[in-house]
Amino acid sequence: METIVKPGQPLQLTLPPDFPQGPVRITIETLPPVKELDFKPQTELSKHLLEIRQQAIAKGMQLKTTDEILAEIREDCREVQEFLRPDRR
Questions:
Q1: Which residues are within 8 A (CB) of 62 and not within 5 positions of it... i.e. 6 or more apart?
Q2: Could you give the CA distance from residue 67 to residue 1 in angstroms, rounded to a whole number?
Q3: Residue at 61 is within a domain
């Protein structure tokens, strides 16, 4: 699990739902600096969306990891499948 630590902000960990409960040991190590995005917006919309993203990060918004985003998508898919089950109608 990786995150970016910023001055004056608490370190937050979001564990996956299936993370086992019980004693844990958390080790923190520094990583090389994060490279700037190589992404170059090509359209006005993508320029605007990148600007919104940069403003949110500057205000301290914690971006979700790929794993967190995929877990949300899986959960949303489960909810839709549950809703569409024939025996629910």
A1: 3, 12
A2: 9
A3: yes
Residue 21 lies in a domain: no
Residue 30 lies in a domain: no
Taking CA atoms, 48 is separated from 32, 37, 53, 57, 69, in Å, by 29, 15, 9, 14, 22
Report CA 28 to chain centroid distance, whole Å.
Answer: 19
Domain that holds residue 71: 44-88
Above pLDDT 90, what percent of the chain?
25
As a whole number of angstroms, the longest Cα–Cα distance in the chain is: 54
Give me 44's structure tokens.
């006005």
> Is the pLDDT confidence value at 42 over 70?
yes
Mean pLDDT of all residues in 61-70 = 89
The residue among 17, 8, 6 whose CA lies nearest residue 75 is 17
Confirm whether pTM is higher than 0.70.
Answer: no
